[in-house]
Amino acid sequence: MPIDGGIAFRCAGLRKTYRSGETEVHALRSVDLSVRQGESLVLLGPSGSGKSTMLNIIGGLDRPTEGTLHYQDIELTGLSDHDLTRFRRRHIGFIFQFYNLIPSLTAEENVNLVTDIAEAPMPAIEALDLVGLADRRHHYPAQLSGGEQQRVAVARAIAKQPAVLLCDEPTGALDSATGVRVLQTLDRANRELGTTLLIITHNAGIAAMADRVLHFLDGQISQEVVNQTRIRPDELTW
Asked: Which domains does the chain have, with CATH numbers?
């Protein structure tokens, strides 16, 4: 689906400073960024470069020390904790490197945890079918491989039908074949559903599937690359 040109996120002067004893750690240093609705964006950078902090702030999991962040016409930096929770519930889907599945629930039940609280979810079985796991719906996490567990986590996020998917190293613990399948599902959500997609990765090869690539270094965007032609995940060079 073509990017519609509207602005999903607008960040201005975002700073994040942590204290470790008497030492200040500057995780973000005055970041300005706009993300268009329906855009596919990859954030690259070494550990400690600020990309995960940036994703957590965009997703309402953390707050900046300074600066402003808007989602459409909502100023997230001005919301209470309660309203931030409601924002995440209504608009954001999260996919992390570690699956965060509940061991005592089946694959379908893990997905249903999200569909039970979402406003307009797709059926859990439909989401599992998108990641090729409909036939494993009654299996528990311990009965699934690591790649299958990650695909359940992807199904759980997509079942919510969020406007935004935030992915932190979604293929970091996967082999290349399984990683491609996960990325194909994310790419499909972006292209067909118009989901705004942000992916953090250390794998520079994944960058070719995005509309735009941001390189983070020392808490700042050090380079921005616009891809003139996106390629499909199955065409990526790992």
From this structure: 38-60+82-235 (3.40.50.300)
This prediction's pTM = 0.90
Q: Which two tokens stand for residue 1?
A: 């689906």
How many Cβ atoms sit within 10 Å of the Cβ of residue 3?
16
Among 141, 135, 165, 143, residue whose Cα is nearest residue 42: 165
User: What pLDDT is stored for residue 238 in this prediction?
Assistant: 67
- Separation CA 27–CA 11 (nearest Å): 15
Given a cut of 70, whether residue 2 has pLDDT beyond it is no
Are β-strands 164-168 and 196-201 bridged in parallel, bridged antiparallel, or unpaired? parallel
In Å, the largest CA–CA distance within the chain is 54
Q: What is the pLDDT, as a whole number, of residue 5?
A: 59
Planar angle of CA 68, 157, 209, nearest 5 degrees: 75
Strands, E assignment, the chain: 7-20, 23-36, 40-44, 66-71, 74-75, 92-96, 164-168, 196-201, 212-217, 220-226
